[in-house]
Each structure stands twice: as C-alpha cells, then as structure tokens.
Amino acid sequence: MFLTISTTGTPEGPATDLGFLLHKHPDKAQAFSTSHGTAHVLYPEASAERCTAALLLEVDPVALVRRGRGKGSGGAPDSALAQYVNDRPYAASSLLSVAMSTVFKSALRGVCAAMPERAASPLPLRIEVPALPARGGAELVRKLFGPLGWDRVEAEPVVLDEQFPEWGDSRYVRLTLEGELRLADALRQLYVLLPVLDDAKHYWVAPDEVDKLLRAGEGWLADHPEQKLITSRYLSRRWGLTRQAAERLELVRLAESDDLEVEDVDNAVDETKDTEERPVPLAEQRRAAILDALRTAGASSVLDLGCGQGQLVQALLKNTRFTDIVGVDVSVRALAVAARRLRLERMGERQSGRVTLLQGSLTYTDKRLKGYDAAVLSEVIEHLDLPRLPALEYAVFGSARPHTVIVTTPNVEYNVRWETLPAGHARHSDHRFEWDRREFRDWAARVAERHGYGVVHVPVGDDDPEVGPPTQMAVFTLAAADQAAGARTAGARPAEYPDPDPASPAGTTTTTSTTTTTTKEGAA
Asked: Residue 388 contacts by C-beta under 8 Å, 6 or more apart in sequence?
C-alpha cells in the first residue's frame, strides 16, 4: 500500500523543507519495522521547486494472519477468506494509518524544532492514494474530505477489470487531494479517515481509541458535518465509545463557540469531592429483580438452585418473609464458601432454622426439592452443555414443580455494549452458550407449554433500545390445574428425558445444614 505527499517551493521556502517537517532526509531511503510489516520512506523527487515523499508499506501476510486472525470488528473485510486472500497488502487501511503514526509521529503532532514556523504554516500540498477502499463510494470520500479545506478532492473509481468494463466499478478509488493546509492537519485527517472509509480496523478497538480520535480530530472533527459517521466507523460502531466521543466533541464545540477552554465549560463537578452517582452493579440489579419477583409471587419457601457462594441466599435471609431458604450446588467448595459468607456457625437458632445448604446436581431429580413455593436459577443454565439442559428442565419443572420458577441468563446481544469484552467472546469462560432474546423466549415458551406453566419476561438492567437488557429474566408460574395434575403424576419421567446413569451419585448427595448434616424432612 502506498501514498505520496508532494509540495512545491519558492526561493524563500524550498520544497525540500518537507524533509525537515517529516523528519526524514530526502537523500535517504529509510525502512521502519511495524507490527504487520515494513514501512519504507523515500523521495521520488526532491528539488527546491518540487518535492515528493512516498510512504510504502509492505505488509507481511504471515504476520497479518498470526496477529489478526480476522478477530472482532477489527478483522479484514470479507472474513471468510481474509486469512489468506484479502486486499490488506495493497489497499490503504488502518494498517497504513498505524504506519503513518509510527513513521511520521512528530509530523502528526506538528513538531519541528528546526523549522517551527514552517510547521505551523499552510503548505501547497498534493496527496495521492492509488488504492483506497471506500465503503460508501466516491460521494462519501468527497463528503468527508470536502469540508476540510481542500481545493480539490478527486475520488476516481477503480474498475473491477479494465478488460471487462461491463463488470462495473470496484469499491476502491484513486484519491487525490490538493490544497493549502498545515502538514500536520493533512496527516491527521488521513490517519482518521483512511480506516473510516475502509470501515474496518485490523486491531481491537479499546477505550483509548477515543483519545486517539480526539487528538487526531483536534480542530476539524467537532464541526464536521459527518462527525457521527466518522466517530461511529472509527470506533468500530462500539456504542459506548461512540457516545463518549460525541459527548467530548460537543464540549469542544461549545468551548470553541464561547472562546473558552474545555475545562472551563466542563466544570460542573467539584473534583475534590466524590459527588458522582456510581452505577448499580448488574449482579445487584439482578438480585433485586429476583427478590421483587418472589415477593410478587407471594413465595415464602425458596430454592436457590446453583447457589454458588451464597449471595442470593444472603439477600433472601435479610427479608423475614422468606421462612425456608435452600441453597443447592454441586460444588462442595462453593457451599463451604457460602457457609462462611452466611456465618452459619455463629447464627442464632431461629435464623439458622430458615436456611439449609444442600449438595446436589441439578440435572437429576431430587425428592428433597419438592414442595417449595419458588425456585431460582440465576445465571445457571448457560453453564450447562446444551444436551444436558433437558435433564435440568425435567428435574426442576417436571419433578420438583415449584409454583414459581425464575430463570435469568445473559443476553448475548448486549455483549457489544461491554467495552472490555472482545468481540465473539462469552462473558465468562465457563459459559457453554449465551442466548439472544428470541432464543431464550423460544426455549421458555417450550418449557412452559410442556410442563403447564405460564411465563412472562422481565428485562434486568439498562434496556437498550437496540440490543435489549444485559440480563433477561423469565418468571414461570404453574397453572392451578397443572399443579394438581403434577402432584398426581410426580415421579413419572417422560420418554424424552432418559433416566440418569444408575451408577451416578445422584441418590447419594449430602446435605449441609446450619447445625448438622441431615436430609430435609420428606427426603428419600
């Protein structure tokens, strides 16, 4: 991939001053190592009248595969073949932007100790990029560069094949920019707009990309008519980062309109005092939603299935309406942590009589779990392999059959809003799957119909208008007729739920209570 920067000179200001501004001597051909190849700087012509600097980036395809693998929104376009067949070595993209920031670092900042006045003054510039991906076509190229002070913005479409003109144009253009601008401003515009036009980045877009965008966009981005499109594409459509950038750019615009510094505008908060309202953690919002659903259902005896370290059990104990609380988990270690969290050994007799911790697998029927008002599966189902999910479904809805069952699980659509979560990754390494809203609703509807429950869905957390809430919650309620029928047929396992392995320890689970190791009344 290739770009050239040309300027013309006068007797007072020879064109070869471009070498000082770029910090690269016109008489030398220099090479610089980058993460994806080698960048070369050379001067095809260098005279007092005209000087041209060329940046040639030789992309190492092996390094591109090893470092990129087409991951996330930064992967190369056309990702089905992007590992080995792509345009990255030839078309200007974020790879070229990174090379510019490496090779022309001082020039991007407008720093030139040898010629500070020249660096601060506009130069007659001509910039050419022979192959520029333009998702949006030549018209978008003109919309992006046109308002930035260039006298000429030419985006000539490149045909797919000159011998077959009927095939039409490709998505590439030959870009030519001419005008009088500061060299630093021109480089900053290219640094931002090359990946914007390509609409892809070869690296993961982290929160520090907002600072990079604002630094490179200083002086031109805040008032650009296509600011929203530029910020969205540059930040790979990461909604949280795009909103943050827009807010900071609005502050810049307001400060410039009033001839103030940004700090003088954004002064509503006294930084010497902690006045910020911290967001409520999602886990806390989830527990609050579960408690509210249990209160609405009128439950007093509750099963916390997959109780883990006992956070929900602890919250249930704080409300005296819940008189019989059972935490169940397959992990003995997790139950020991829960016991320490609840301080079972120091609990008074009345309080200890309200809580029991049981070891047991949720994919096996367990007579100890029958007869409860409600059961909670909070962030549990996604930890099971999908083939094991029907067994859990029958154990809870078919065998235990509490009047109310509450199920919460992550909404995979919301994952794009987590700024620290790489694209394509689950929220937890142990998650076997994560469902979108439609998949969860379909599953809940099938379970409800099969076992005689009604179901309603409740969003938990910020209900984003585009991707929904971070946590989705289903509240199942057993119909009265089905509750009676379930009592008559309890223990009958349908054919689609095979019996567990008779050699399994399902019938020998232990019970850890607040005082002694025992089974609950009525256990087999």
From this structure: 363
